[in-house]
Amino acid sequence: MTMESLAARPISEVADVYGDRQNQLIGYGLVVGLDGSGDKSQVKFTQQSVVNMIKQFGVQLDDSTNPKLKNVAAVSVTAAIEPHMGPGQLVSVTVSSLGDAKSLRGGTLLLTPLRGIDGEVYAVAQGSLVVGGFNATGENGTSVTRNTPTVGRIPNGATLERVISTGSIVTQRFVFN
Fold it and tell me: Coiled-coil annotation: which residues (predicted)?
């Protein structure tokens, strides 16, 4: 590498900074708007999550309410945050079914807080899913599945709410490898 090519690049492209690393975030959320391909009624945590969400909006529900949720799926939401990202920056998320949904195609992730390993909320995610897989069933019961229809992505689907501190490293020396 010549000195001219080094001068034209940010140092982060040609060096690794000790202590800089990705941070993983995870959250639990609901995908709605599925066309009958969501969790079945046996998935109790999806039912409980929907009932709790509806109650938070001030809707009174009888305790015996047993919603049919074929258009909803409980999901995990994950994101990888690069070093030095800050509030307001967008990051893509991966959304994966936790229950027995057949597909997340056509679904929308409801507002989901994303937490770090310390339990603190660092980002919030929501938006329409992009799903690369599909599942089709014929009248005679045969089915075809390509890729994974129960996992999707939301490009730039999360907004960072605060900085993830990696601690500061103060040293008087540089090590070149």
Answer: none
